[in-house]
Every structure is written in C-alpha cells, then in structure tokens.
Amino acid sequence: PSINVSKGTNFYYTWYGCESLETFPSLAFSEATSLERTWNGCSSLVAMGTPIIPKCTSLTNTWNGCTSIESFPADFDTTTVKYFSYTWSSNSSLKTFPSINTENALSFFNTWANCYSVDNIANGSQSTSFPLLTTDNVTSFKGAWYSNRALTVFPLLNTSKGTDFSTTWYDCRSLQDFPALDLSACIGTPQDGETYSGFRNSWLQCNSLSDFPPNMFDTCLATEFKNCWVGCALPSSAIEKIIVSIAKSSTDNNLSNGELGLEGGTNAAKSTWTAAANAAFDSLIAKGWTITFTA
Predict the structure, then answer these.
(1) pLDDT value of residue 13
(2) What are phi and psi of 261, to 5 degrees?
(3) Which of 53, 72, 114, 207 has its CA 20 to 30 A from that of 26?
(4) Would you state the pLDDT for residue 2?
C-alpha cells in the first residue's frame, strides 16, 4: 500500500528483517535525516522504488543483506548523504550500480562489501565495472569493495583524502590491473594492533591481479601493508613497482618497523625479483620492516 511518510524524521529499523517483502513503492521521505537499517535484511526484495530523501545524511546499513535485488533506481538522489557505511553490503545478486550523487560522502566503510556480481561492463555496457562516483571528500574506503568478485576494470576515483584502505579490494578476484589512484593520504601502522588500518589486506586474494602502477606510495606515510598483496598474480616487474615505491617513502620519511605481504598465489618468487626490487627489500629490512614473500 501507499503510505504517507513525509513527516517522519527517522526510519531506523522500520522494515528491518521483512524477509517476505518483494517490492517497495517510491515514497517521499521528505523530513527524514536517517534511513539507517530501514530495509536491512529484506532478503526477498527484488524491486525498490526510488526513495525521495532531500534531507537524509545517513544510509548506514540501509539495504544491507538485501540478497535478491539485482539493480537499483538510477534516479536515486543521494546528494545530501554523508555516511554510506554498509549501505548495500551483501547485496549478492546486485549486477549493476548506478552513478549516484556522492559529492557530500565522507565514508564508504564496507559500502558494497560482498556484492559479488556487480559489473557494469558485462551487465550495463559501460567502460568500467563500477561507476565513476564523486569521492572528493571520502576519508574511509575501508572494505568498500570487499569481495566484489566480478569487477574487472576499476574507475579512476578521486581517493586523495582517503586515510584508510584496509580490506578495500580484498578478494576482487577478477581485477587484472589497477588504476593509478592517489593514495598519498593513507595512514596506519602495525602498532595499530587489531584495528585494521592503512593498507592491511587491501588487495589480499586478488588472484588475477598481474600488474600495478609505479610510484603509488612515494609520499604515503602508511607502514601497514600486512597481507596487502598476498595471493595475487604479480610478476617481478609489478613487485618492483610496489616495493621500490614503498622503500622510497620509507627512506624519505624515515618510516620504520612496517609490515608488507607479497607472498602466495602466483606472485613472483624472490629469487626472480629484479635488482631494484631486491635493493628496496634490503633497504626496508634495514629499517626494521617485516616482509613476507614467496621464496
């Protein structure tokens, strides 16, 4: 039924766990400032009308666990939204994603985690697997595309304010290369403990990833790269680009006691690394870094 929700300001948990709900109409949430967990766990939802949300700032967990929905309204206006944490997490049937307005977004924490099937190239005839969203103000990309297994071409997003990229592309197993994103603002050290930070697990188990841009970490102050490229398919040339860049920042900024993971998968064995890669390795070891690699 059509209902009037125009005066409501908070719809926290409103239709949470309505597992038999299959369709939902387009409603005007005119005064709503939050739609946190509103449709969380509506696992049978296949058709979502366009929500009208002119004042909403948070879509945290809004459609988390909506495992049956395959597409989202292209006319969804999210201009006012700042927080997208877990918004579409575990939308495992989602095949395409629209180019929504994210100009005010601050957080993409696990936003599309476990969206296994999203690929706008195969399913939407676009040039990249994911839309070129406006991310100029986003600081947390932690887990944003975790286990997006169908992504093949990632867009050149503006990530210049991102401070946390831990688990961001973990298990993006169809990515073969990666764009030259600006990751210079990322921070995080192994001393952060169990709180994942920096680049911990960032490209872990991207088992098709066979190339990586040079100079990506030249000015980055992060020293947490634990498990970062474990289980990838990096040849010695790609490993050189990575480790030489990290070593440059370590030297220029006196960064010590970091962690770096380069082993497993079909990553090149250290015995095949280039002279430049081995020199960078030695430089980092001398500064107290712990580096795991394929022997």
Answers:
(1) 97
(2) -115, 120
(3) 114
(4) 77
The pLDDT of residue 1? 66
Q: Helix 275-286 and helix 236-253: axis angle, to 10°?
A: 40
Annotate the chain with DSSP letters as a single string: -----TT--B-TTTTTT-TT--EE---B-TT-SB-TTTTTT-TT--EEPPPB-TT--B-TTTTTT-TT-----TT---TT--B-TTTTTT-TT---------TT--B-TTTTTT-TT--HHHHH--SSSS-----TT--B-TTTTTT-TT--S------TT--B-TTTTTT-TT--S------TT----GGGTTS--TTTTTTTT-TT-----TTTTTT----EETTTTTT----HHHHHHHHHHHHHHHHHHT--S-EEE--STTPPPGGG--HHHHHHHHHHHHTT-EEE---
Number of neighbours of residue 221 by Cβ within 10 angstroms: 18
Q: Block means of pLDDT (10 residues each) for the chain, length 295 residues?
A: 90 98 97 98 97 98 98 96 98 98 98 98 95 98 98 98 98 97 96 85 98 98 98 98 98 98 98 98 98 97
Pairing of strands 47-48, 224-225: unpaired
**Residue 196: what pLDDT?**
85
pTM of this structure: 0.96
C-alpha 176: how far from chain center: 16
**What is the signed CA dihedral for 58, 64, 69, 72, rounded to 10 degrees?**
20
- Amino acid letter, residue 53: I
254 within 8 A of 224, measured Cβ to Cβ: no
Question: Which has the closest alpha carbon to 190: 262, 289, 281, 109?
Answer: 289
